[in-house]
Write a structure and sequence with these properties.
about 150 residues, single chain, mainly alpha
Length: about 150
C-alpha cells in the first residue's frame, strides 16, 4: 500500500487488476468475439501478425491496462476522501457505480465518435464498448474489495 497526498493505493491490487483486464482482453478478442471483431475491423482472417508485432502489441496492452488500473485506483481513492464516504452505500454499489460512471463518461464517447468519424459499425461499437464495460467493472471490483 502506498499513500500519495492522502490517497491510499494498493499496488498489488493494481497489478492484479492489470492481469485480470489483460486476461479478459485475450478472452474477449481472441476467443469470444474474434470472428465478428476481425470481420468488422476489415482484417483478413487468414493473416496472422508476426511474432514481433504480437510481442509489441502485448507489451503495449499490458502498459495500457496498468495505466488504466492505476488511474482508476486514484479515482476510487479520491472518492473515499469525500465527506459522506460513498462506500457507506456498500462496497459492491460503490464499485459498480464507479465503473459505470467511468465507462459512460470516458469509453462510450470515444466509441461513439469512432462510429461517426471512423465509420465503425454498431456491432464493433458493442464489441469494443462491451469489453470496456466488463473490464472497468472487473478492475473496479478488484480495487474496491482489495483495499
Amino acid at each position: 500500500m502506498i499513500e500519495i497526498n492522502m490517497l491510499q493505493i494498493n499496488v498489488v491490487a493494481v497489478i492484479a487488476a492489470t492481469a485480470a483486464s489483460f486476461i479478459l482482453g485475450f478472452a474477449w478478442y481472441a476467443k469470444l468475439f474474434a470472428k465478428p471483431w476481425i470481420k468488422e475491423m476489415g482484417y483478413d482472417p487468414s493473416m496472422r501478425p508476426s511474432a514481433k508485432t504480437m510481442a509489441k502489441g502485448i507489451a503495449l496492452m499490458v502498459v495500457g491496462n496498468f495505466l488504466f488500473a492505476w488511474v482508476l485506483a486514484f479515482y476510487l481513492a479520491g472518492w473515499l476522501l469525500l465527506p459522506g464516504n460513498p462506500i457507506e452505500f456498500g462496497t459492491l454499489a460503490f464499485a459498480i457505480n464507479s465503473a459505470l460512471s467511468v465507462w459512460i463518461g470516458f469509453f462510450v464517447p470515444v466509441h461513439l465518435s469512432r462510429v461517426v468519424w471512423e465509420k465503425h459499425s454498431w456491432k464493433l461499437f458493442f464489441i469494443n464498448s462491451g469489453y470496456h464495460l466488463v473490464a472497468t467493472g472487473i478492475v473496479a471490483l478488484i480495487l474496491v474489495y482489495w483495499k
